[in-house]
Amino acid sequence: MLISLHVKNLALIDETEVFFGKGLNILTGETGAGKSIIIGSIALALGAKAGSEMIRTGKEFALIELLFQPETQSQQEALSRLEIAPEEDGSVLVSRRIMSGRSVCKVNGETVTAKQLKELAGELLDLYGQHEHQTLLQKKKHMEILDDYAGEALLGIKRELQTEYMHYKKLFSEWNEAQSDNGSRQREISLAEFECNEIEAASLQIGEDETVENDYRRMSNGRKLMETVSSVSSLMENENSGVADAVGRALRELHGIAQYDKEAGQLAEQLQEIEELLHDFGRELSSYQESLEFDEQTFRETEDRLNEINRLKTKYGNTIEEILLYAKKQREMVERLADFDAYMERLQQELSKSEQQVTELCKHISELRTKAATELAQQMTAALHDLNFLDVKFEIRVEPDETAKSAEGYDHVGFYISTNPGEPLRPLENVASGGELSRIMLGLKTVMAQRDQTATLIFDEIDTGISGKTAWQVSKKLAVLGRNHQVLCITHLPQIAAMADSHFKIEKNVYDNQTVTEIRLLDDDESTRELARLLGGDALTDAAIANAREMKELAADTKQY
To answer: What is the DSSP letter of 55?
Structure first.
């Protein structure tokens, strides 16, 4: 349930905090006092669109905090699924700070995404806005309501259908494309075969491009390489300045004195290593010099091979691996198109199988909807009787249409109602008035709440278009609903306000030339006076107060049953 609401710097609210109770919480106040701001702040905290114009004039931010005490298993599971850890006492604090250009949402101090907040909000409460009853005029809303009522049994099958329907659409698209012009198919085959033959004729080897490019670079600079290597060789072998000879003579001299001094012997050993390195270098230099000898034909062949590789790269891929992969895919396409009849037959079989599975799932969903429609219509009829629809007939029609398969099934769902004896059932959108739609929506909310065990229900002016006896019946329905749920309801009608388990008044006051909206819990005497105001206006006569007291007593007696 919703424990408390804390609002700061929002519209006309400077700062206010209210603690709600169990059962039926009624909110009343003068027109324009800011009742909808209070309820709207709850929606804002749970992710509704918020603009910077909602921040109180002169303030840098607005803050809304909601404190919940999760009570149902589904709420606990939602917290676990969203990885939200409750406080030590099990409570959950949802907060939203609205600033110019952005807002920050947190749950128990942890920042959450809009998607997470939306999912959590759906578990914590159900908020019925002032104009939500108008959605009952939309056919698609009827199917949504019925599917929600049918519950997980239907939703699980719908998930299967959505997966299979996507597979069916993919196969259908592939089949459609395959029906293209035969001449176009032949051109595709010819082009693909040419490309495959061209790549295969090149006999490419992975890594070959690097080797050939290196050989070409070496051959292109062969003259410079040969001249440099020859010069180095001459320097090494020149009799007058040959390095190896000079080192050899120096080594013999050192060996001659090594017997006289230990350090001289160590120098001779170092020079011995140098001499051996020079001999090794000489052999490797000679081998490298021999490798530089190549003829013009070898160079041209290397150049041609490199050009061929680069040409194929330009057409089919940046690397030899990509070129070979392209050839593989083209060969597979050639084989598939060449064996087109067999390919089409296989595709047709897969398409027919998928279509059959889609049809079977649609049929299963339709059966579940039909069963749920009968149950929901019976419960709605009973609920509408309680809401002063004395001779009402309510029916939910599920009409299968195999030509209208989709990821939602193939049904057309419609709500039909007759509110007067002798009148035929007609589509809800063609019959109901605004006040009737409000009561029908209340009936739906009542039935759905009892089924899914929503803990907190919020109604913003559910009394639109009703009065008198009908208002009393609505108040009794809200009282019954409040036995197993927490209900918050804004109302202008004394019949509904009289049923309050907790009665709050929303007022607009002026402090230091600034208008401020406030909310406070009324005691029994204050609640009676507020009812008297709703009954007779601002002039609180003794008769109005007596009438209000009598109405509260009647409401108390009614709630005993």
So the answer is: B
265-271 long-range contacts (CB < 8 A, ≥24 apart) are 271/247
Beta bridge pairs of residue 64: 7, 96
Distance between CA atoms of residues 438 and 132, nearest Å: 8
DSSP-derived secondary structure for 104-120: EEEETTEE--HHHHHHH
Both structure tokens of 35: 């009742």
Closest CA to 428 of 466, 462, 392, 467: 392
C-beta separation of 380 from 439 below 8 A: no
The three-point CA angle 37-43-48 to 5° equals: 110
418 vs 393: CA distance, rounded Å: 5
Question: How far is the C-alpha of 92 from the C-alpha of 152, rounded, in Å?
Answer: 26
Contact present, 545 and 465 (Cβ < 8 Å): no
Other residues' Cβ atoms within 10 Å of the Cβ of residue 311: 12
Tens of pLDDT along the chain (561 residues)?
A: 899 999 999 988 888 999 999 999 999 988 777 777 888 888 888 888 888 888 888 888 999 999 998 877 777 877 888 888 888 888 899 999 999 888 889 988 888 887 888 888 878 887 776 556 666 777 788 998 899 899 888 999 999 999 999 999 999 988 887 776 656 777 888 888 899 999 989 899 998 888 888 888 777 766 666 667 667 777 677 655 567 777 777 777 777 777 777 787 788 788 888 888 888 887 887 777 677 666 668 778 888 888 998 999 899 988 999 999 999 988 888 887 777 777 788 889 999 999 999 999 999 999 999 999 999 999 999 989 888 888 889 999 999 999 999 999 999 999 999 988 888 899 888 876 667 787 888 888 888 877 766 778 888 877 777 778 888 888 888 888 888 889 999 988 999 999 999 999 998 888 888 888 889 999 999 999 999 998 876 678 888 889 999 999 998 888 876
CA 445 to chain centre: 27
Long-range contacts of 114-120 (CB under 8 A, 24+ apart): 114/47, 116/82, 116/84, 117/46, 117/47, 118/46, 118/47, 119/78, 119/81, 119/82, 120/46, 120/78, 120/79, 120/82, 120/84, 120/94
What is the 3 state secondary structure string of 343-385? HHHHHHHHHHHHHHHHHHHHHHHHHHHHHHHHHHHHHHHHHHH
The pTM is what?
0.64
CA atoms 273, 276, 277, 278: torsion sign: positive
- Six-digit token pair at 403? 């030509």
Which residue type sits at 282?
Answer: G
Q: How far apart are CA 21 and CA 458, in angstroms?
A: 13
